[in-house]
Amino acid sequence: CGKFDYLRKHLSDELSGKAEIEFNEISDYSNYCSSGDCNTELEKITIGFLWLLGQYFGKYPTKGGIINDTKPFFLYIILWLSYKLNQNKNHNTTKIYDFYNQHVIGNNKYSKFTSNSSTFTNLEEFINKEKNLLNIDIKDLSKFYEASKLICSMYGNVSRSQTNDILSNNAISFVQKYKDLNNKYNTEGAPHLQILSALLTDYNNLNKECSNIPSFSDISSKVSALASEDTSSSSIGNRLFTVLSIFGAIAFFLGISYKVIIRS
């Protein structure tokens, strides 16, 4: 989560927001824009994406192969990218996979990163492996971003000992957002399930870390009350929010387990 906080200081989440720090002061900027003239909003978004990829492969290095399982960090990267691309209409693409091929591989400005990427992984093979996720419509993917941001906010609340109404409100907001996403995108076999699973797993991992915090029981009660309001939900939805209310289970979809995203 710290990587996203760092990036947001250089590139605001808000469409008309002002960054705290100049974008070209991002670490290793020249590795992502060797020409030094990547000044448009779309170019900044692209560099932000490549910078996050660089951080991802730095955290999960491989030796002569690709990363075998999809980490939550990568899922959160594509959620951030989809959110930013949904704000910017100058790329004329509806899927991240197409955006990557047209605006990253097809642009010499980023050739230093793409050519050097083979030193830590086979980037092309990795991207193709994630094709199902990257072919989700950008508008749909962007709707998951707020939930991932709330997860990071809650981890930040805990690390700063903000275990009061701030954490409680973030937890309630997350569950409401998750409920909406689950109702719309919980379809058997859909790639969206990987994202839903990662979000739920990180939420349950947060509960494990906070099990000895007294105020978290109050959050649990509020969240359970919110979940119980959805009396007309499907059986899948009911099972999901039973899991949320007891905060103990680790979700598995598609045979993929996820690791906690703390301080990614």
Automatic annotation (TrEMBL):
NCBIfam families: yir-bir-cir_Pla. This is Yir4 protein. Keywords: Membrane, Transmembrane, Transmembrane helix. InterPro entries: Yir_bir_cir. The chain crosses the membrane at residues 240-261. It comes from the Eukaryota.
